[in-house]
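Run log // design_07
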């Protein structure tokens, strides 16, 4: 059995929808399961300690979730072409996993949602890849052989799944397809690496 951690931060719900479609893709593969986790808000005023169980939605991620996964999908809204601070804060505190190499040689993929056409989707995806490379992870994107990548008029890039929100929190047909395909690719690769 292979478990994929789908770790995301979502302020308005679009990134969460993407995470759910990626999880469906993961779970469409035999012997694969998805673990949906989010991260708490961070406070700009003072140190904030969040409960491990939020009022609604996915549970908060722990470093153990990160260490024990067989693969990782990392998702964030795009804020000025970069990942959101709560997700970066969590990743910045993952040095224990880095020191013991618990993510080395495991597959990873990234996904993002932005409010505008030029909202920095691709640079956000690239910014999320950098710490994953430091962890020694094997990065996966969406290959051009995926038909929805060539059909989309909204989100979707070779770097990973993306969503163009504008004023909507619903995903286009192509965006859903690309999220699902990314989950399938991540789960399939994790199983191959785990059994090799």
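design_07 sequence
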């Amino acid at each position: 059995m292979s478990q994929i951690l789908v770790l995301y931060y979502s302020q308005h719900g679009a990134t969460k929808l993407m995470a759910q479609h990626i999880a469906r893709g993961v779970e469409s593969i035999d012997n694969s399961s998805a673990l949906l986790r989010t991260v708490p808000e961070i406070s700009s005023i003072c140190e904030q300690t969040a409960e491990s169980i939020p009022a609604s939605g996915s549970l908060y991620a722990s470093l153990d979730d990160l260490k024990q996964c067989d693969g990782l999908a990392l998702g964030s809204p795009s804020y000025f072409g970069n990942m959101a601070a709560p997700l970066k804060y969590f990743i910045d505190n993952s040095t224990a996993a880095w020191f013991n190499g618990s993510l080395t040689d495991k597959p990873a993929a990234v996904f993002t949602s932005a409010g505008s056409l030029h909202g920095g989707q691709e640079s956000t995806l690239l910014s999320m890849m950098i710490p994953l490379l430091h962890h020694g992870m094997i990065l996966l994107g969406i290959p051009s052989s995926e038909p929805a990548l060539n059909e989309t008029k909204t989100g979707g890039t070779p770097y990973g799944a993306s969503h163009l929100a504008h004023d909507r929190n619903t995903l286009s047909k192509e965006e859903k397809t690309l999220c699902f395909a990314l989950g399938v690719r991540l789960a399939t690769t994790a199983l191959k690496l785990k059994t090799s």
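The mean pLDDT is 91.
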